[in-house]
Specification:
Oligomer: single chain
Strand content: 15-25%
Distance between the termini: 8 Å
Helix content: 10-25%
Structural class: alpha+beta
Radius of gyration: 15 Å
């Protein structure tokens, strides 16, 4: 059995509806093996909204149980 958590930062808490928010809605953040292409400016993406260890942040975190045997 596997438990999988998906954690999504609550960006709407930090970025209010404006032009930046409208631009962000046009794209996604891509996490690739050798680089990250953020949809928001680096300061917001990598600091304010980043779900880093040992930092409390607002987020949506659903968990799923997969009944798969290894």
């Amino acid at each position: 059995m596997y438990e999988i958590g998906i954690h999504i930062a609550d960006v709407s808490h930090y970025v209010k509806r404006d032009r930046l928010d409208e631009e962000a809605m046009k794209g996604d953040t891509y996490n690739l093996p050798d680089r990250v292409n953020p949809m928001l400016p680096e300061k917001i993406s990598n600091e304010l909204c980043s779900l880093r260890p040992h930092e409390d942040k607002l987020c949506f975190s659903p968990f799923f149980i997969l009944p798969i045997k290894a």
